[in-house]
Amino acid sequence: MQLEKIKTIDFLEDHLINMSNMKEENIALSSTLNNSEESTPKFKEVTHESRESLEKILSDVAESNTNSEVTHEKSDSKETIDGKYATINFGPTHPATHGIFQNILKVDGEKIISSEQTVGYIHRAFEKLAERRPYNQITPITDRLNYCSSPINNMGWHMTVEKLIGVEIPKRVQYMRVIIMELARIADHLICNSVIGVDTGALTSFFYPFSEREKIYELYEEVCGARLTTNIGRIGGFERDFTPTFHEKLKNFLRTFPKAFEEFNSMLERNRIFMDRTKGAGPISAERALNYSFTGPNLRAAGVDYDVRVMQPYSSYEDFDFIIPVGVNGDTYDRFMVRQEEVRQSIKIIEQAYKNLPQGDYKADLPEFYLPPKEDVYNNMEALIYHFKIVMGETEIPAGEVYHSVEGGNGELGFYLISDGGRTPYRLQFRRPCFIYYQAYPEMITGMTISDAVLTLSSMNVIAGELDA
Amino acid sequence: MILTLTKLEKMNNDIILSRIQEHFSSDVISSEVNFDILTLEISASKSYEIIEFLKNDEILDCSFLTLLGGVHYPEDLNREFAIVYHLHSWRKDFRLRLKVFVPAENPSVRSIVKIYNGANWMERETFDFFGIIFEGHPNLKRILNMDDMDYFPMRKEYALEDATREDKDDRFFGRSSN
Asked: β-pairing, B81-89 with B94-102?
């Protein structure tokens, strides 16, 4: 009986530490203590000694919060848990992680003291696989990196190979690519932002944009026949021109989407509950973000206007007029707002590209790489030879090293390709933005509550497929 | 804080090279231009100092580490492993590729985590797949593979598929088999 009582008071003390942590007011603490003593007079008295130890824990916690960087370093080593803190597993299969990541959180009540990540649960050895595949067979691998916006990955890979071959791509193909890539960006941002809604408790904002996202997937289907892992386009262009149905559906999408999007936006943007939950959750400063090699919306939310589309334009992005939105605090709300504005800018780009879509061919003159149409294969000797060579992977490619990057859904997606003239790459390395910025996650959530950690994770748009390659 | 990236001047490759050679004349072993990126081979003993200089130098200002990774060249004696750094200077708008070659007996190079925190996981990944040791790394352990794995899978001696298969011989891939 006695033991139990002591346990209870220990628990109470822990609770008080949390409270004082949050309010940092000793007055509140002492008044609560007095109250508890009055209501339960049997409990042992809070002595000076116990108070001292309490103070010590408080100062320790405060110290660990200020030196969050140091805590992160420490958290990597295996520490024994001393009973004061609880250890919980956030992941690997947890509905709030939206993917397979394990985070071992050391918590004091609701407050995160330190955390350690384990990644690699769905590692599929893409870089090794790519060393055994001809160039056109690597496109399906890129689908499975960031599967929320696979067309961007496909196009990035096509452009890397085209850069190595040194082929001129027709203006029409470049504009068609821009349209597809911006559609993919919208789909990616819609998923991310609607999931932030789910994690704040608003399920409507998750279902509503999905009907709009479905329209984007239907557009992919019109171009390539697939929806999620698209394998869209080819080295040198597209497999076919935009069909009349595509034109119709795109026009329809451009007419109806902005309205629906603003409706979705009004659900969250100035929503008092949403703002209170997301403002100040998981912030990162511009300097730290740069040091961690952040790119994409997460970096722009911290206030740095770096965008590959503007810095090193590819696929004729220099022809379009659009702005790069930036945030100020780099917190969850800023990341949400940056993505929302980017969706509007993407619509603007698609409208410009579609309006000025040049006439011309939907593919480059690249017979060594571009698979000829079936009719030609049956009726034309040259096409048959090229068809055979492409399918057997016997195409000539120059030796060389090339790095090409595109602005993916969540940052700078890069391809570092080393070719030795063989039929497969000698080495292919993907710059996967998720992998690089996810390492800042412990620093961002230290001192936050568990619910903020969930929000931070979803607003960083970490995609397991890209993270683990 | 809002940083604005204004393109001051397009840096010439000669200016970049001469600026580095001013300070590290004997440590830049070779240089070439691969497509649009200047590639420098630097000595392993001074790689840390050169990268630190590149980050802090006002003229070059390579404030951003884009990519870090390894490459295995099993046939190059005493320079079997390459560690490739891609740096990016946003203010001066140029990319720079640095290569450090290390021998297979002692594949180690100094860690640059202190200069760029983002290098932490990229170095762990390179260690995981190539077995390259980064001296001074705070937590050098495997990241994507299992902890008890006893080989480094991206090395060329580990074939992706069953080595007894004859239909996918390296000769058919445009290379002589090892």
From this structure: antiparallel
